[in-house]
Amino acid sequence: MFRAIADVLRQVGAAIATVVTLPFRALARLFGGASATT
Fold it and tell me: InterPro entries annotated for this entry (predicted)?
C-alpha cells in the first residue's frame, strides 16, 4: 500500500517538476537563440 502511494507521489512530483521547468527551458532557448544571432 505504501509502495503504491510512494509511486503516485513520485509521478506527481515528476509532473510538477516538468511543468515548472518547461517555461524556464523555453526562456533559456529564447535567450540562447537571441544571443547566438547577435
Answer: LPFR_strepto
CA atoms within 13 A on the CB side of 14: 6
Q: 3-state class of 28 per DSSP?
A: helix
The 3-state secondary structure of 1-38, one letter per residue: CHHHHHHHHHHHHHHHHHHHHHHHHHHHHHHHHHHHHC
Give mean pLDDT in consecutive 10-residue pieces for the chain, a chain of 38 residues: 96 96 90 73
User: Alpha-carbon distance 38 to 35, whole Å?
Assistant: 5
